[in-house]
Amino acid sequence: MLGDYPIKGRRASDIAADVEQGVSSGRLAPGTPLPPLRDLAAELGVNPNTVAAAYRLLRDRGVIETAGRKGSRIRPRPAHTPRDEIRLPVPPHARDLSDGNPDPALLPDLTPALAAASDAARRDPVLYGRPAADPGLLALARAAFRADGLPDGPVAVASGSLDTIERILAARLRPGDAVAVEDPGWGSLLDLLPAKGLKPAPVRLDDEGPLPEALAAALAGGARAVVVTSRAQNPTGAALTPGRAAALREVLARYPDVLLIEDDHGYGIVDQAYHPLVGAGSERWAVVRSAAKAYGPDLRLSVAVGDADTMGRVLGGQRLGAGWVSHLLQQTVAELWRTDAAPADRVAAAYRERRDALLAELAARGIDAHGASGLNVWLSVPDETTALAALVQRGWVAAPGARYRLEAPPGMRITIARLDLADARRLADDLAAVLGTSGAGARLI
């Protein structure tokens, strides 16, 4: 039935393990269709419900995908293989514009904040039985959320945006549920969903954020949650505008039971205002902010506010597992938030200047690109492989769009964090040579 790999097993767990062995050994190639439930049940001499349970296990583990009447097949890429592995090597002569990192020169000196946290730990060590969150950090987070018009709610502290989003999704969803996500969107989130047995429902976007009609279609199709990036969207740089936020709130108001997660990871490195989607009648919601882009990816800390039931589940699960994020990290971030407000404006202005410089140079050469905020610029290209390879030959390495796409057309992501004006001109010249006239007029949507 499957060529030289007949599936074996009598129990659901045995059948699932046998299929996983076939995948790991390479004998079941990506895209290989699996037999219909009843056909495999008849061949193995088991109840069809046993095969259905095995397929459910495989789907939950991200080994297979199911497309309705088209049946089930081995996933094109194992769910636990991160999209970050889709990358180009960086030759010695080339500039790496693919990593998405902030400019180290714009990160603050952590010494004073770390010293303050260390001094606090010396005076009052954090021992078992203490609250999970630092009171000073909670007060600053609540004040910032309140200033941006968000409702009051419990605040959780976790290890970065993805950790927080994973905890929130796990608190409210179950394997098989669909999650509306931006397309192109954050590769790590697109990896997380199938690894947790969740199905991504792609939502197209433009420079102002998700398209309302695309979000409405995903929700009408049964998505149980939606993740929207408020600003500095990865990879396109999209940022919600007041008008787009209002239109999205109208859509969300029709689905009050849908879990709304706003990812505001650009907090601290952007100068666009925050426009919340919460308040449209959503009963289940959370807003997540991270310190990674503003203070460095190794400061693994994020804060999230949300409705009492959702955040209660998140906090309860955290107590049973990780327990808490190091108070040394929490107090370090709190100290940075207290003392680093003015430099944050300078950092946002620097990234805007670099981003706008590249966009202007590309526009002058007839190349349509996108980057309303954040660290990245997105270009649609007719063929990713050809364009990226030609760019490497000219000394630049960009990120393949395949790392961020579900159904969106081909593209590439360029990180502008360390790109000065002279770099922007040279890069634009090389992109014009690589793309020719085919790059002109390309659209994000």
Principal-axes shape call = globular
Task: Please give the number of β-strands.
Answer: 16
Mean pLDDT: 91
User: How many helical stretches?
Assistant: 15
Uncertain spans:
438-442
Largest sheet: 8 strands, mixed
Please bin the fraction of helical residues: 40-55%
Strand neighbour order, sheet with most strands: 4-11-10-9-8-5-6-7
Taken as a percent bin, the fraction of beta residues is 5-15%
End-to-end distance: 41 Å
The structural class is alpha/beta
* Assembly context of the chains: single chain
Question: Using only CA atoms, what is the Rg?
Answer: 23 Å
Q: Would you kindly provide a written description of the structure presented here, covering whatever features stand out?
A:
This protein has 445 residues and is of the alpha/beta class. Strand 8, helix 9 and strand 9 form a beta-alpha-beta unit. The strands form 4 sheets. The chain has an 8-stranded mixed β-sheet, sandwiched between helices. About 1% of the residues have low confidence. It is globular, with a radius of gyration of 23 Å. The two termini are 41 Å apart. The protein contains 15 helices and 16 strands.
Topology:
Layout: H1 12-25, H2 37-44, H3 48-60, E1 64-66, E2 72-74, E3 95-96, H4 111-123, H5 135-147, E4 155-158, H6 161-172, E5 178-183, H7 187-195, E6 199-206, E7 209-210, H8 212-220, E8 225-229, H9 242-253, E9 259-263, E10 284-290, H10 292-295, E11 302-306, H11 308-320, H12 327-339, H13 341-364, E12 369-370, E13 376-380, H14 384-393, E14 396-397, E15 399-400, E16 411-415, H15 421-435
Parallel strand pairs: 3-14, 5-6, 5-8, 8-9, 9-10
Antiparallel strand pairs: 1-2, 4-11, 6-7, 10-11, 12-13, 13-16, 15-16
Helix pairs in contact: 1-3, 2-3, 4-12, 6-11, 8-9, 13-15
